[in-house]
């Protein structure tokens, strides 16, 4: 029952997602139409040819005919224009050919009839082609709108600040054109502290979105209960286990679904960070003074969330120093297990020290750019990174 209560708000979010998707789909459709509109020269050039053909035919020798140029005019417009404009240019081209034939009094000849039939067939084909292309483009716009809206509702962008902590985040899905997948992050501001979550559900890409939504809903619902960190993770375990089972096809499928996660609590008035690790890669602490990177390895890590039924583990937080100016980097294995062409893992701990004194947003940009260069742009897994810096400014609950 506790898990059901924590995730009951998910039903409301589904309606919100649907409304946001509809609005964004219309907006994105308008943007695409504006971007897809052909440059005036793509239309003025063919129009000039259409006008020039019957005029030039009146001055050319009888054995020279420019009708084939009209085919090119229609084809050029079809490269960028939609079916309506293509049909208009095609109709004008047919009319231009008729005028040229009538001017020379050869409209009924076999040659002109064949040219006219060929031009009409070409125009009909190009109109059909542009119709199919526009329909496919519109479907792609809708898919991207759904992905974008889902990300903004499920995987909300982190604020630039939460209390005395400055935040920056990056996300990249494993699948092309997907803005959300199996990696996740979230922040919750409670009285006296800031709580961060980073996690990685089993699987990747669009197939893991349901599990991602379950984890994020559980964290947001449990965080605002103002309970200690171990209890918060315990509540998350109950909700996640129930939620993953609801989306599973069978008991065996439910037993194989789990989430690795790192849950962090940063007190406002203590220079420390409390960490519970559930089978997740250890966060990196970047020291302000030494610019060294230290992996925050928890002495007693818990198993991934969703497996408590077989483990019965306790969630014991570990405490580490986290002073003013220090930076905390949380990441998923899509970063630490990225490989170069020879199969060598990305050395995150070594590379990140180069930019340890940078602002969080700049630090993230440097790491992501370096990672893409290291892998030649071939990232095969979802990737999420969060950087938190304690700057000592007044906290706002």
UniProtKB/TrEMBL annotation:
Q: Which Pfam families match?
A: SpoIIE
Q: Spell out where the chain crosses the membrane.
A: 41-61, 81-100, 112-132
Q: Where is the signal peptide?
A: none
Q: Which residues form a coiled coil?
A: none
Alphabetized, the UniProt keywords read: Hydrolase, Membrane, Transmembrane, Transmembrane helix
- Ion transport in keyword set: no
User: In this protein, which residues make up the domain named PPM-type phosphatase?
Assistant: 165-390
**Hydrolase listed as a keyword:** yes
Q: What name appears for this protein in its UniProt entry?
A: PP2C family protein-serine/threonine phosphatase
Q: What is the originating organism of this protein? A: Streptomyces lannensis
């Amino acid at each position: 029952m506790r898990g059901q209560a924590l995730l009951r708000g998910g039903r409301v979010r589904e309606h919100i997602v649907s409304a946001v998707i509809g609005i964004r789909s219309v907006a994105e459709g308008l943007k695409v139409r504006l971007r897809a509109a052909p440059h005036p020269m793509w239309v003025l050039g063919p129009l000039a040819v259409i006008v020039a053909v019957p005029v030039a035919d009146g001055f050319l020798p009888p054995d020279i005919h420019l009708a084939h140029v009209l085919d090119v005019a229609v084809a050029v417009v079809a490269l960028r224009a939609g079916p309506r404009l293509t049909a208009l240019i095609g109709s004008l081209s047919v009319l231009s050919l008729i005028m040229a034939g009538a001017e020379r009094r050869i409209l009924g000849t076999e040659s002109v009839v064949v040219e006219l039939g060929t031009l009409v067939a070409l125009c009909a084909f190009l109109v059909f082609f542009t119709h199919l292309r526009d329909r496919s483009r519109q479907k792609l716009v809708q898919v991207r709108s759904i992905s974008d809206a889902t990300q903004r509702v499920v995987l909300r962008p982190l604020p630039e600040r939460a209390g005395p902590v400055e935040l920056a985040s990056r996300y990249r899905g494993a699948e092309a054109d997907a803005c959300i997948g199996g990696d996740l992050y979230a922040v919750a501001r409670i009285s006296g502290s800031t709580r961060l979550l980073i996690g990685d559900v089993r699987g990747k890409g669009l197939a893991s979105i349901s599990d991602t939504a379950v984890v994020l809903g559980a964290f947001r619902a449990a965080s605002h209960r103002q309970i200690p960190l171990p209890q918060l993770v315990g509540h998350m375990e109950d909700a996640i286990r129930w939620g993953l089972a609801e989306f599973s096809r069978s008991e065996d499928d439910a037993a194989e679904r789990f989430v690795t996660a790192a849950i962090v609590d940063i007190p406002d008035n203590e220079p420390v960070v409390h960490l519970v690790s559930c089978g997740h890669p250890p966060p990196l602490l970047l020291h302000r003074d030494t610019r060294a990177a230290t992996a925050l390895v928890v002495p007693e890590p818990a198993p991934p969330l969703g497996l408590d039924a077989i483990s019965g583990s306790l969630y014991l937080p570990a405490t580490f120093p986290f002073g003013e100016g220090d930076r905390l980097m949380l990441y998923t294995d899509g970063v630490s297990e990225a490989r170069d062409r020879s199969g060598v893992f990305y050395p995150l701990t070594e590379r990140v020290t180069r930019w340890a004194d940078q602002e969080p947003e700049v630090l993230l940009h440097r790491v992501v750019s370096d990672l893409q260069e290291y892998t030649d742009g071939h990232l095969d897994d979802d990737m999420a990174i969060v950087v938190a810096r304690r700057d000592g400014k007044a906290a706002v609950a």
